[in-house]
Amino acid sequence: xxxxxxxSLFEGDYSHLQLEPSVFCECREFFINTQSSSxxxxxxxxxxxxxxxxxxLAHPTLDGPTQLACFDTTSVWLRRVFNACKxxxxxxxxxxxxxxxxxxxxxxxxxxxxxxxxxxxxxxxAVRDLFTKTLQLYLLTCPNEELKENTLLLLLQQSLCWxxxxxxVCTAIQILVKYTGAEAVFxxxxxxxxxxxxxxxxxxxxxxISTTVFTVLxxxxxxxxxxxxxxxxxxxxWMNLWCPVILTEFYGDNRQTQSGMSSFLIPSLLSVSPNIxxxxxxxxxxxxxxxxxxxxAACLFALKIAKDGKLIQHLDLNNEHSxxxxxxxxxxxxxxxxxxxxxxxxxxxSTPLTVEEFDCIESRIQFAFGIADSDTRQILxxxxxxxxxxxxxxxxxxxxxxxxxxxxxxxDDAKIIKRSQRFLEYFISACIEYLHPxxxxxxxxxSLGLLKALVTLGLDGSVEESMMxxxxxxxxxxxxxxNKDVTRILIDxxxxxxxxxxxxxxxxxxxxxxxxxxxxxxxxCFLFNHGLRLLNSVRxxxxxxxxxxxxxxxxxxxxxxxxxxxxNVRRILDLLQKNVEVARKSLLQAAIxxxxxxYLIQLSYTFSTSSxxxxxxxxxxxxxxxxxxxxxxxESVWLLVKEILCDxxxxxxxPKDQDDSxxxxxxxxxxxxxxxxxxxxxxxxxxxxxxxxxxxxxxxYPDVFDYSNLDHYGFLMMSWLWEIRHRGAFTSVxxxxxxxxxxxxxxxxVNLCRMPxxxxxxxxxxxxxxxxxxxxxxGGIPFSITGILVAGKEKNKVLLSKxxxxxxxxxxxxxxxxxxxxxVDLPQVHAMNSLKTIFTEHRLSSVSLEYLEPAIALAxxxxxxxxxxxxxxxxxxxxxxMNRSFGNKRPKGVVNLGNTKGLSTKTFFSKFPSLRxxxxxxxxxxxxxxxxxxxxxxxxxxxxxxxxxxxxxxxxPNEEEWEGVNEFEPLLLQCTAxxxxxxREIAALSLTCLIDGSHLMEFVVTQLxxxxxxxxxxxxxxxxxxxxxxxxxxxxxxxxxxxxxxxxVSLTLLSCFSEITSNKRSFYIKKLFLEIIQSYxxxxxxxxxxxxxxxxxxxxxxCKRILFEKKSWPLYGHNFIGLPIHQQTAAEIxxxxxxxxxxxxxxxxxxxxVSKLLRYEFYEVQIATLEHILDHPRKRVIVNxxxxxxxxVDLSLKHQWSQLRAPALALLSDLLEAKNYKSMxxxxxxxxxVVQTNESLPVRESLLILLGSYLKHLFMEGNTEVVNYYYCxxxxxxxxxxxxxxxxxxxxxxxxxIHFGVSFPSNSEEINFTGICILxxxxxxxxxxxxxxxxxxxxxxxxxxxxVSDLCINEVWSLWKQATKKAFGGLSEFQARxxxxxxxxxxxxxxxxxxxxxxxxxxxxxxxxxxxxxxxxYQRLQDLLYYALPSSEELQSWVEDGIKSIKQFFVNxxxxxxxxxxxxxxxxxxxxRIIRVAKHVNVSLDDVHELMRAIDAHPDFCY
Length: 1503
Known about the structure:
Layout lengths: L2 H7 L11 H13 L2 H6 L1 H16 L5 H24 L1 H10 L2 H8 L1 H4 L9 H19 L3 H17 L5 H14 L1 H7 L3 H8 L3 H25 L3 H20 L4 H16 L5 H11 L5 H17 L14 H5 L5 H12 L10 H10 L9 H30 L6 H24 L7 H16 L27 H9 L6 H12 L10 H15 L4 H21 L3 H22 L1 H7 L3 H12 L1 H7 L4 H25 L25 H27 L9 H17 L3 H19 L4 H4 L2 H14 L11 H11 L6 H15 L14 H14 L4 H4 L3 H11 L5 H19 L18 H7 L3 H19 L6 H9 L19 H8 L5 H10 L9 H8 L8 H18 L5 H22 L6 H14 L9 H19 L14 H19 L8 H9 L4 H13 L3 H5 L2 H10 L6 H11 L5 H6 L4 H8 L5 H21 L4 H15 L6 H14 L17 H10 L4 H15 L6 H16 L3 H12 L7 H9 L17 H11 L5 H18 L14 H16 L5 H9 L9
């Protein structure tokens, strides 16, 4: 378009113009190319272009892209006019006179009116540019300074009211405040800062909002500094402006706001002055009504912000920041970790740590090995890795400074390097200390992870270069991590029960150039033979360990002698073939003594390594024959286990020809269990090996892996999926089949690439054929189909479309009428189950969504099918489709409006448009059926379920409200009036996606109008709807809108209260009505809300009347339905609010009324009352009320129901006065007898708690028989605190102990009864319980007894041990108890018996697994020896017996070595206890050490 054409656009009427973005682009280019003089010389250009732009900016009839082009053009126009005005004052005056006020307003208001245009990106940048240039032009052309100032102030006032979710609005405020000053902001909007905090909830706007707030505050700070001569005064006044608001949010519950503040706002504020950070920390500590833990966490957070912002370089751990030392011992591991990160990490990794920082970390680093939470442990490992990187980088920098003499303090730098080396040496030794057998899982996992990090960072020079991470720095020193003993310990960890530990151990060992202690072929062969022995184990972790051991041996043996790997593989395969031969004769014998899984695992490991592939490249015939043998073996194994795994009930199947006589004697597992385990594990490992061989070796031997063979083995794997009935077996084949199909689809050969496609058609045929027998959810057939689709989703997406549509068509096929149709699996069932698997598979999620619409329709139609199998698989398919559509399952009963993962109705129906008319049609049909015969079509339930998962479609500014679901609302409202209760419930939840939250009050008022004309079902449905709406929307109301809501809705509830609570309404309706008031109105205690308070009082009056005046009940029996649960709700309301409203008569105290509720005729009321008292913070005072106490005693009697008796007994343990126990007529012997029986567990636990409290009072009275009862009680506590007992049982034992009480006398003269010395040991057991809640409860009580503040568990335990030893260490009874704990193991006391028992190896599939993964046997022994006296004759005698047995059992052992008997954790622990106790009691171990060194036993026994 030439210049004339552009100019012609500016002339005449613009309303007829149909403009596109290209036209505005031409105008923009025209403005750019026009010289500045042209604007002043040719006055018509400015005026005509001004009119043109003014018209289209004021009348936004253009589409989005054209509007954006218009903005860009206007921006260029403003710049050209601005430049012309600067050059010509006359033109400047002409511009001011020509431009109308409305045009300025239009441009200035663009951030408010055009911040977003649907479907267009980059709008805010264009608007920001327009606003900036408009303001520049206005300030240049306006001749009146007062007018300028007033305009700027008006603009600022307006912009403060605009929606700050638009970043351009924030920019506008930032620009304007620089002209107006910060005082203007606070004069227009005094709550500017608190308002801004609300916008920080959305992290995407947090930076813009924070920049705006900081701009205002920084300008205000400059003003204050100019105002006051004293900078301290200016800082204090400035902080008083923002600090209270920031602190409120800092200690609030909104994590999004806190994240936004900490990332952007607070670092900027703290950087204003060096004094701000300490003042802010001080303000955090002084903040009222906040717990110490919260203050500590907040201070750590603030310090981290300051350190990340480089406002603090080094922490002063001796003075200003000394509190960090104590926080490293905090009870919360997350605070400990945050404290560690603060000290150890730094944005500049070259910054060295100080000696004080090293000392602090080293003295408290033990916390790292006790973190039980997996997420926290992962964060710790990442932090430690970063810490090590910082040590390496800082030492590298210091060494470089020393080398080139760049540092003025070279001696100090050398000291820091030396201190770093000492710290790492200490840390490595600490890690190795936690690798001993029996150390707990967390300790071992953490230690290995940390060692792995150090290995990859280049600390040990023996590590292969390829195993190290890329690095820019290197340590100026080397530390040897792996020696002979550590190598032995890591090899022993290869048979750990946990695969993560096995993998980490192997990775560390393989990282080295050589294996310390295994440098010769003979040493490696010895280790290899140990691995072979483990391959023959029936236990999975031992097989895995054996396989990893042989991989380790192959790696290092190949370095010493080429060809070792092939010889080893050949040997393993020969042993495997022998075991297969045994299985052909007797499957049971093979399952017990000749398993094959270990050998298969090892072969898979071997062929997965890159070194094996290098052997295959040589095209060696030996390897070729070996591979052919493995391929043949896969079919042999299948024939062995086929009969077992393909049985309709494989779990209990024992083949008829299997004779278990003489084989199954003394077996811990049943023959059927052994055979099944052997079978499914064998197929699992052979499928893995087969896929590995096919994928890794096919390119090396094309004659072996030709088209027919590859096709054959693909069909073999599919046949496994088709025929196997054992779910564990075919699900283990599935990933192997997917890998193989992916390999084929990735082949460059066209024939091989298309090979799986015919397999898919064959699977479809199988679906149609497999209808003569019953399978479990179609067995592996769906996996066979899905596996091909997963593998081919990238290469051949058409497959998915054809398959899903074919399965849907097959599912819709009409079933021929047959009385036996429901007794067999139909093709339709297989097809629907296959669809379910396809939509469940996460790897197909992105492509399967396209077919969600027909699948949902299919599932909904299946709900109404006459055959149960079709209905059943329709339910499963629908569930899978909902999870694929909406994400994870939501908790039952949760309204989806609060679920951020939910989809809005607009989004859902935009993604799946065909569902809207379909669902509307189906819903209309279902509602008509429901209305005509009062029966819900089963297809109604999935539709309602789907709507209950949707959210309301909120609109953006300038966007029209979406009305796509308006037709559904009357239909769903009809469902809420259904006679079927479940339909009403789901329909009420479904309505939540149709109601705008801003109309909540109007909706609730409308629902509760004219209730007197409603039927029971209609009223019940309306109340359900009101409850659902309140659950999802009430929390969104704030400020005045919330007050108005409570006022209007309370008035409505008052008007319908008498009608709903009248006798003509069912008790279910009344209960629901009370629940609504209880949940959303009774807890709102605003005294100024008069109508609300009236509603609360009326509710309390009603509850009291209905509970205590039977004349208020209906006269007819059938109207009593639902009365008990109604009374339960009334009781809950009455009890929760009785104190506030003082609801009791002059003659009846509150205690009397509560006692009446405890004796109520409905047990629901009694349970509600008991639960209320149990949860009450002043329950002890309540229980000691005489009337309540007598009611509880009545409930605790034998004949009472256990659900009532158990909480009553638990409450009675809080009785404070001994006379009350006498009135209960308790018998200790009877209580103990009941606790030890098999009666109701809750009753026994409650009696145990009561027993602890009762014994305390008997002791205080000086009862003569109390000692016998006491020791019985102690035995019960020891039994109930056992790690294998249930959590509730262990918690009851702790509660019983706390009720009795533990104390430490200051001296031995204060001990009147020596039996109390046992109690600290029992509490110590709970302090080391596996459950963190129990540990924390025990630690809290221990801190109370020790009179110390809350500390971390480890520190509490250390103090508890010290106090226990100091108070009771000299008592003979205490020493006897400690000695018994040391000596007894697995029920045996003599060391010789223990060793003999543990050396007798069984062949059970599973070992007894320890439940306590927190407290290891190793730690327990160390702690017990802390108490034990070295002069104990009992321990000396036990040790002598143990030493004698060690010599007896190990004297004939030639070489034990790694993975030997002394490496078995059970054997190790018994021997270690003997040796460790012997050292403690000073018994000579020279002969034992000499023997252990001779047989190369575990290193812990050799020195």
